[in-house]
Amino acid sequence: xxxxxxxxxxxxxxxxxxxxxxxxxxxxxxxxxxxxxxxxxxxxxxxxxxxxxxxxxxxxxxxxxxxxxxxxxxxxxxxxxxxxxxxxxxxxxxxxxxxxxxxxxxxxxxxxxxxxxxxxxxxxxxxxxxxxxxxxxxxxxxxxxxxxxxxxxxxxxxxxxxxxxxxxxxxxxxxxxxxxxxxxxxxxxxxxxxxxxxxxxxxxxxxxxxxxxxxxxxxxxxxxxxxxxxxxxxxxxxxxxxxxxxxxxxxxxxxxxxxxxxxxxxxxxxxxxxxxxxxxxxxxxxxxxxxxxxxxxxxxxxxxxxxxxxxxxxxxxxxxxxxxxxxxxxxxxxxxxxxxxxxxxxxxxxxxxxxxxxxxxxxxxxxxxxxxxxxxxxxxxxxxxxxxxxxxxxxxxxxxxxxxxxxxxxxxxxxxxxxxxxxxxxxxxxxxxxxxxxxxxxxxxxxxxxxxxxxxxxxxxxxxxxxx
Length: 468
Prior knowledge:
Helix content is 32%, strand content 23%. By secondary structure, it is α+β, with helices and mostly antiparallel strands. α11 (368-388) crosses α12 (415-437), α12 packs across α13 and α13 crosses α14 (453-463).
């Protein structure tokens, strides 16, 4: 790793025409009391989450670090560090830090570990699409325009693409557009969800089988690899693929041949594979549940799909798109007053899927806005009292801590901080209401929110909303 003589020049992201210049920055974590090397990860357009959870970008083997402890992202002011409500906190010396612009080489203490950033080289130039739409996908944010530019180059080829992103970010929609922009667009688009099929049936579903291949195989069946011939096979939730089947998929991709269960001959593989997962595959590789060689074979082109909370500029065009496909079509003027500020303030843990479902509900039940507004008002009082006792630490350019005054009123706060607090309040109030309506049945609450059951469990844990 190499340093830089002028750290401040490396931290601001600047827009130059149709490219974005990003600093070359790495996040460095030194696990306290843990054996092994220091953990280093590059920080790009998408934020990095740090914690002990396997779904974090940097997994820290430190029991004093929370499951999702903190987040770092590049902003126009520098690298922003944000504590995500960790149990043991984040400290600079004896001062607890909730949110800070972190200069290079200044170490924060998270749990029993040290965290810092380091400039590692010259700026990285990221191409941006000139359009705010790619097929059926809208995105005016810089993150989505950078994603569009990357896919515009990769889609016409036969390169295998790996889509990484949280549940609900639209990975299947992206896969469909990749197919539509490829030379295989006239061929079939076939979907296989690894999480939706029993593990003992995955091999026969993918590869097919011949008569007598196993008990109950009274006939023959072509697998999805054959059904997708001449087109694209979208393998969703590839992180759930059983470990014993991963070598077989790898061999098929490498040799461009496959063999049905029970068959003695091979067939030619004529498909383009697009895979997707919400799992952290590098963490699964480290724990031995995913093959490193299969990961690199799939990630010929790796696309990180940003969460909706990280591209708030896209919320309004997405809402307009969802309204336009209602029957009859609607516009923003058909929503109750003050709806957009509320939607733009929410953190959207269920991402685009949750937003789409919310827009549908608002069209059917306009009073929902008033109910959510009232819930936010009640929650604001509790959160204000709780946070008034805390002090938010800001790091100056030289690394000194400049405490701000206690938080009591959202309207007295800077917009970014007020927005973050409002989003937390909304999310807590919204999840609480859905849990109460479902009598704390997680499955029913997840369905009502339009998110997965796994995400509903994470939200319950995040806000301590266990039934009394």
